[in-house]
Amino acid sequence: MKPRIVLWLIMVLTLLAVWINLPPLGVLSGIPFINKFPVKLGLDLEGGTELVLRTKMESVAREDRDTALESARQVIEKRVNLYGVSEAVVQSSKLGEERRILVELPGVKDVSTAVNLVGQTAQLEFRELLATASAEATSSAVITFENTVSTGLTGKDLKKAQVTFGSSGTKAGPQVAIEFTAEGSEKFAAVTKRNIGRPLAIFLDSQPVEAPTVQQEIIGGSAVITGSFTAEQAKNLSIQLNAGALPVSIEILQQRLIGATLGRESIQKSLMAGIIGIALVMVYMVAFYGLYGLIADLALIIYTLLVLAVFRTGLFIMPPITLTLAGIAGFILSIGMAVDANILTFERMKEEFRSGKTGRKALEAGFSRAWTSIRDSNVSSMITAGILLVFGTSVVRGFAVTLLIGVLVSMFSAIIITRTLLRLLPRFKIIAKQEFQAPLKI
Predict the structure, then answer these.
(1) What 3-state DSSP class applies to 124?
(2) Is 275 exposed, middle or buried (0-12, 13-18, 19+ CB in 10 A)?
(3) Is the pTM value of this prediction over 0.70?
(4) Are 143 and 80 in contact (CB under 8 A)?
(5) Element (DSSP H or E) covering residue 148
(6) Is the pLDDT score of 173 beyond 70?
(7) CATH-assigned architecture of domain 3-39+260-432
(8) Which of 35, 176, 279, 295 has its CA 20 to 30 A from that of 138?
């Protein structure tokens, strides 16, 4: 493809990246197409809630404890995803015989909501009155776990749960409509048939939620849980029921609210570090390579815009990248690696000039000889980032993702952007006669 056509494509990509990265400041804040792709921030930057949970494994066989820990982690992760928390982290760990679960919820500022969401065991059970307690309980409306007996109908028989709203009387307000599986529907029909005229108690984690009186046999496997619910409580209950019950009980060891002030301070320090890093690299390139360094600096600016655009959009084929402090560190590191490819190219071009080549021949030979070194260096970095991505923890993965994206874009920047700009560099024939003997002399 002709260099001028490639240049136009680079300009289009750059303008698109500028549009994606424009912040809604001043007069720009009123423009509807600005800031359509905001940066997604992790817990350490945006703030949110962090919970450390300990699983109670006393009643679980030793050989089954690792399986129970993973099952509990999956249930909590499903609850968090159903709640709609983006880029939450749910991971398990072992500390001796103690098994813990770490939960990070970016943007969730209500700690009690987070605790209720992930900490409740959510063991749903339908219980009927003991024959000896039936008359007393019916008259006094006192129903406890002790004076009821299990019907065998539990949360395991549920097919789905969803929030609905009653329209009149005592049934007005938020409710949780439940639907049983085929087997659960048969159990429910049998339970309601033998309890007509008697209360059927619904317990969640051994605590009574409701005890409606059965009016008739219910066929079809549908029911409604009502109570003194707020809309948020009904939503959380439906999430817990849909995600399933935790296989083990858990205890909150630590709960921490990370405020937005800490996040803003971290962002400011990270931005300052990035600006200083880019500025030093750009000064270095100009000092050592003159006009060639200016070309590399221009390519570096375009590279930075492109990487940030990828973070914000995910290239429209994957979720946007959530930036954490570790992720910003990976991005800053990738900036140095992007410049490294240009340095390799310029050093190879020096050698070609010294060997007597000039003009386009020196340029193409320099890029050709530098390509193998650039390729091997970047591939090794991508392999390392891939290993960290697969086997690392959440913080390490954030670093690996941004580093991997940065390396990929840096290869594009060095091979396509810098090369195209040098090919179209005005007065290239005059510059090519020099041998980089005095880098500041153009």
Answers:
(1) strand
(2) exposed
(3) no
(4) no
(5) strand 148-154
(6) yes
(7) Up-down Bundle (1.20)
(8) 176
